[in-house]
Every structure is written in structure tokens, then in C-alpha cells.
Amino acid sequence: MDTAATAVDAGTDSAEPTELASGCPARGTSWSGAFRASWPAWAVAHFCTLLALAIAKYEVTHFRISSTQATSAAHSGLLGFDAAWYRLIAESGYRGAGYSSLRFFPALPVITHLLHDVTRLPTGAVLLAIAAVCSLAATMVVYSLTVFELGDQALGSRAAWLFSLVPSAYVLTMGYSEAPFILACAGCLFCLRRQRWIWAAALGYLAGLTRPLGVLLALAATVEVLRESGLVAALGPSRPPSGDLARRSLAVAGPVAGTVTYLGWVAASYHDFFAPVTIQLNGRRHGSVTDPLAVLVHSASQVVHTHDLVVAGELAAVVLSVAMAAVALYKLPLSYGVFSAAVVVVSISGHSLDSYARYAWSAFPLVMAGAALLRSERVAVPVLVASGVGLLGLAMLSFQGVYVP
To answer: Which of 42, 185, 286, 403 has the most CB within a 10 Å radius?
Structure first.
């Protein structure tokens, strides 16, 4: 391992690796290397998702399934559920899509609309193309960050596979906002760890415009700014200062500014600054903010009394994500762990655990923490196979209308 790698692993961060100065994504890697390590996992995940959709369509066509929910989910396919909302907003705007559409943040539908105007391709096709490109790029950045932080390309490869094959990752193939959101978040952490404050601010701003959870990146930025300045010794050794206070402040403010920009537009257009939040907190959706422990107790009771396998699966996701957040706090720089823990806590705080696995998976450092535990190939292979089977199964349940991603 080279000197720069040793310095980072020891937590000194006393100098930026020469590979980074030359523009490569992480020490010992290049963007072409990240692509070669990432595309097979990305391709397998997309194949599994498309296979699940094909099976669901076959069942609806040949078994005469009468459930409206099942036939609708299979027919809508990759543009179903939340993707249908993003498509409608891109085509008709928020007023055309209706008041409830305000809970969907604007970055994805706006970009989709602009690309549709430029390419004249169908809106749905543009939406899926954005998801495909962003998911591949996000996988590459997760790989590069893992190599940079853990100093092991094999672990980087396992992080790419785990990121792509986590059961909820099938939404990367759908017209959801997860792919651009995780790409913006990972890119922001990528720049924060390299003291590229302006780029971190821009990507944080984009994340804040893409999903409500984007605002939590401000916590990670705050940790990195405090660590870089040496103001809080507990955060680790300070690094050579890079950039003035204004640029560092922008990195912290970027995610908040992105969220406030959208809420400000909503306030100007609908006279209700918090409308996207209050709509999402409606009992039919995520529900009002609730004590996370009370949510877990209620969900466990529901599993015991009703044997609801969907809720049981979400509870298992909670246990796993909490454990990986603890690993992230221990194994990774504090900014990763703080961001992951914040996303996990916020995701548990609704009145139910509906779609919890997808929300928590947005905290991509959980995958990096998981990869850190997969140093043995004998452990990694069965874990990744089981995860891929879980992805196929969960995607099938969604396209059959049983599970809402």
C-alpha cells in the first residue's frame, strides 16, 4: 500500500494523494477502473429487475389475474408508483399533476422535461434513461469512495455489488428519484472528503432539490468543515486548510439552500411554505412524525398478531440498517456515519415502516459499511447471492402490486 493510502487508513489525512490531484476518483483507481468494476453489478441488477417485470406480465397475461392492483402494477412496469408521478409532473407541471404532487421534489421532473424538449424522446423514456445513467454513475462513485476510505479495491468491488443488489435497489431501474439523489449525495461526500467545497455545495444543492432527505447532507458537511478546521478535536486530526471560510460555509449551506429553494417556490405559488412536508406527513402516506421506538414496537406487534410478511421484511431492514449505521460510525469517517444515522432515524420516524428499505438505502454509506464486513470471499459470495435473490423477489412483489416501493 502506498504512503498516501497508509496516511488515510491511519486517519491522518495529512496530504491529498497524488492520484486525486491528477483527477482520478480515488487512490489507486481511475474512472475507467471504476466503470469496469461497477458495470457488471449494475447490469445484473437491471437484468433481475426486468426479469421480475417480465414474470409479472406473463402471470397477468396467462393466468387471468383479476386483481386490479396486480394488473395495474404489471402494466405500468418501470413507470409505475412514484415514477408515474414524476412523469406526470414532467409532462404537465405541478398544477397539471395536482396539489398532492408537491410532495415530489422538482429536480428529476425538471431535468426530464428539459431533456424531453431537447431530444423529443418520450418523457417516460427520458425518465428511465436518467435513472439508468445516474445509477451507473452512482455505483462508480460508491466504488471509488470505498476504495478511497478502506484502501482495498476488492472491498470497493463488493460495495458496488452490494449497492446494486440490495433488495430495494430495483428502483434504480425504475423512473424514481433514488438514482440521481444517491449520485448527488455520493458526489457531495466525494468532494467534501477532498475539500472541494464549491463542488460539494453544488451537489448538495442538487440533492436538496431532489429529495427531502437531501437536507441531511448539511450534517456531513458540517462534520467535514469542523474536522478540516480542527475546531473540534474529537472529530479527528485537522487537515491542511483548503478554501476560505466562505467556500466552506457554502458546502454546509448547499443542501439546505436546495430544499429552501423548492419550499420557497411552493410558498410563492401556493402560499404554504411547508406544503410538501405536510402532504407527505399525511396519514395515508409516511404519516406524522412519531417516536421511532413506538413505531418499531407497533410494527413488531403487527407482525406477531397478523403475520404480515411485508412489515416483517421492513423490520428486518431496520435491524440491518441500524447495525450498518453503527459499523459506519466505527469503520468510516464520522461524516459518513452521521449522514447514515440521520437518514435511518428520519426514515423510522413515520407512523409506519412503509417503504422504509428504500428510504434507508439512500444512506449509501450503509453499503460501504457492509462491504467492510465482507473481506472473506466465502462470506461475500453467499451474501451477494442472497441479496440478488431478494432483489428479484421484492421486484416481483412490486410488479404484482403486493409491495409498494
So the answer is: 185
Contact between residue 177 and residue 209 where contact means Cβ atoms under 8 Å apart: no
Q: Tell me the pLDDT tens digit for each residue of 81-138.
A: 999 999 999 999 999 999 999 999 999 999 999 999 999 999 999 999 999 999 999 9
Alpha helices (H) along 271-308: 275-280, 292-306
Which three three-digit cell numbers place residue 317?
Answer: 431492514
User: Measured between alpha carbons, how far is 60 from 55 in angstroms, rounded to an integer?
Assistant: 9
This prediction has a pTM of 0.89
The residue type of 8 is V
d(CA 124, CA 87): 6
* CA–CA separation, 115 and 109 (whole Å): 10
**346 lies in which domain range?**
29-273+288-399
Whole-number Å distance between alpha carbons of 269 and 142: 37
Could you tell me if residue 279 is inside a domain? Answer: no
